[in-house]
Specification:
The complex is a heterodimer of chains A (285) and B (319).
Chain A lengths: L13 H7 L61 H17 L10 E7 L7 E12 L6 E8 L2 E8 L5 E8 L66 H4 L2 H7 L18 H16 L1
Antiparallel strand pairs in A: 1-2, 1-5, 2-3, 3-4
Chain B lengths: L5 E9 L5 E8 L8 E6 L6 H5 L19 E12 L5 E8 L3 E7 L1 H4 L4 E9 L7 H10 L4 E9 L10 E2 L9 E7 L4 E3 L1 H5 L37 E3 L3 E13 L4 E5 L9 E6 L28 E3 L13
Antiparallel strand pairs in B: 1-2, 2-3, 4-5, 4-15, 5-14, 6-7, 6-9, 7-8, 10-13, 10-15, 11-12, 13-14, 13-16
Classes of the chains: A alpha+beta (285), B mainly beta (319).
């Protein structure tokens, strides 16, 4: 990225000064040394506003930053005119320029502040673990779960609602499954998160860590039969709650032919690349 | 000796407005090449100069209470959510106006003696598998052949010259419209789905009767089943109108209308949109662009027109 444009004024002489001020990390600081141009004698020097500070972190190159495209940008495989998705994407990008929607996955802990006209402080803050991300386009939603005063609470937020004020990721991580509905039948310790939790920092170049945790469940019956292959749950300790005979009995509902179903394959890699480039170009404008 | 392809005739017809047709005709003895190829360019899109002349046959009038203007034919793209400034969520259907042109004007005397009619066409389609009469109609108007051709009832002061293109800016945000389209066909359906009958209980002794219509009417006095009795049959694939739908947003660049609620028809079907006839919504439809919105007129419209209550995504977060 280029340093801010040089003015013809009195900035030329400051190039050597800038070079000598380079940090050992390779970060370049712009200085305010050459701000005041030499005015004519007797008159005070004309004020030239300082150039914006530009930090170039040579330690992290552009290529090593994590590339992430939010799943609601990927259009579903339908017989819809692509014009419709293009219009929706424009609106989504416009909203993202105002409100920063960070990268997060199912299993990350988020803190969300919403505008609430009926609350005393006019805002509404909630912290929880994301158990589901669903919806495409502007109607995309995510559900946060937490246990407040012994009561499990799940709130479904719309990402692009005008009532969203602030979204922050307190802990960015992935889990073994796409949705964590089984936390409703797991022990409460796995869904409790402190409201005043401090954010855990993750470097933008590192890969998102996958939490390999397998949760322990409350005694059966559960809200859904999580052992059945249609849910394909990897994150439960079945050996502690089910006998091998019960696990085998659950395999009767297996549908082994589904892996060969070609109509279910939807390769989004090429679509994702194109949309990712488009979104990044628009956001950087 | 050799069977050469003879390029016999190249006709270049230049119409008054500057649009031209090029027709190439090739005759070949042995090879089978399509005989006729048509290439068409449009220089000007509206006959704006015609509207400005003193004694022209298509004068522009002012809108008044009793006047009825033409509608549009649009393509249903899909649905998406929309929020008001107070945070309420509504859903809208996106309708895109693709190549809508006025094709013909039928005066009051020829049509039904009471109102004049304008024939509108939408969405260009290939000129094959069409009768000569329909192709002639499009040729007279100077437009390419259209997929859907419909009629709109129109008062005499809202008549438009055939060949004029119609755009989405014909409708403005805040006004109400009626949308007509063919509903999705459901095939042969039973009486519970088709007419909303409640059927019979699932258990407690019912013998083979759970979704049947039950009684067909009173007994011995009429001793017949009345005409129009609701019975199973083919459901859907008929024209249906949704009344009183609000226009939330108009995109003038891509010609898309954002209309409240749902609209009959499947995705990518052609729908007819016109100003609403509901009496309580007429006050919202005052002073529309009359007789239509002309693209090469004086009005400079921004890319997006929003309703005053609608939340725009570029607005900053309050507080």
């Amino acid at each position: 990225m280029a340093v801010s444009s040089r003015r013809a004024g009195g900035v030329v002489g400051s190039v050597r000064l800038l070079r000598s001020l380079q940090h050992q990390d390779g970060r370049l600081f712009s200085t305010s040394v050459a701000r005041h141009t030499a005015g004519s004698e007797g008159q005070p020097p004309k004020f030239v506003p300082p150039s914006k500070p530009v930090i170039i972190d040579k330690a992290k190159s552009q290529a090593s930053l994590r590339q992430f495209l939010s799943p609601e940008f990927i259009p579903p495989r339908q017989r819809t005119n692509p014009v419709k998705f293009a219009m929706e994407r424009k609106d989504m990008i416009q909203r993202r320029k105002i409100l920063n929607i960070p990268e997060f996955y199912v299993g990350s802990v988020l803190e969300v502040t919403m505008l609430d006209p009926h609350a005393a402080s006019k805002t509404n803050r909630f912290v929880g673990i994301c158990i589901q991300r669903s919806g495409k386009g502007l109607g995309a939603t995510f559900t946060l779960r937490n246990i407040v005063d012994g009561q499990g609470v799940e709130i479904c937020y719309e990402l692009y609602s005008p009532r969203m004020k602030h979204i922050e990721v307190l802990k960015l991580e992935k889990r073994l499954d796409d949705n964590l509905f089984y936390l409703r039948d797991a022990l409460p310790e796995y869904s409790t998160f402190d409201f005043d939790m401090k954010p855990v920092h993750l470097s933008p170049t590192q890969d998102v860590p996958v939490n390999q945790i397998k949760v322990r469940m409350k005694p059966r019956p559960w809200s859904k039969r999580w052992e059945r292959p249609k849910f394909n749950v990897q994150g439960i300790r079945f050996d502690q709650c089910l006998t091998p005979e019960q696990m085998e009995h659950a395999q009767k509902w297996a549908e082994p032919w589904r892996q060969y179903d070609m109509l279910k394959e939807y390769d989004t890699s090429s679509v994702e690349e194109k949309i990712l480039q488009e979104v990044q170009a628009e956001l950087n404008k | 000796n050799s069977s050469d392809i003879l390029l016999t005739v190249i006709l270049l017809s230049l119409l008054l407005d500057g649009s031209c047709y090029c027709i190439f005709m090739c005759e070949s003895r042995k090879s089978s090449i399509p005989a006729v190829q048509c290439v068409r360019t449009i220089k000007t899109s509206t006959w704006w100069d015609e509207h400005l002349t003193e004694d022209n046959p298509w004068p522009r009038h002012e809108w008044d209470e009793k006047s009825r203007r033409v509608g549009l034919v649009a393509v249903k793209l899909g649905m998406m959510p929309v929020w008001t400034k107070s945070g309420e969520r509504h859903v809208v259907t996106m309708l895109q106006v693709q190549d809508c042109h006025v094709i013909k004007h039928i005066p009051k005397e020829e049509y039904n003696g009471r109102t004049a009619a304008l024939i509108i066409g939408a969405k260009n389609s290939p000129p094959f598998y069409r009768t000569e009469e329909s192709l002639e109609m499009f040729r007279n108007a100077g437009v390419p052949p259209k997929q859907k051709v419909t009629t709109f009832h129109v008062t005499d002061n809202a008549v438009i010259k055939p060949g004029t293109p119609l755009y989405a800016a014909h409708f403005r945000p805040g006004q109400y419209v009626d949308v007509t389209a063919k509903t999705i066909g459901k095939g042969f359906q039973g009486v519970m789905k088709r007419w909303g009958f409640s059927g019979q209980p699932a258990s407690h002794g019912q013998t083979k009767t759970h979704r049947r219509p039950g009684s067909l009417g009173p007994g011995g006095d009429p001793a017949k089943v009345f005409k129009g009795k609701k019975m199973p049959g083919k459901m859907g694939n008929v024209f249906d109108t949704a009344f009183g739908l609000k226009v939330w947003r108009v995109n003038t660049k891509a010609n898309i209308l954002y209309i409240n609620g749902s609209v009959p028809g499947h995705r990518n079907c052609l729908v007819k949109v016109r100003d609403t006839i509901l009496p309580h919504r007429l006050e919202k439809n005052r002073n529309p662009p009359f007789p239509t919105f002309f693209a090469d007129g004086d009005e400079e419209l921004p890319e997006d027109l929003y309703d005053e209550n609608m939340f725009q995504f570029g607005e900053p977060i309050p507080g």
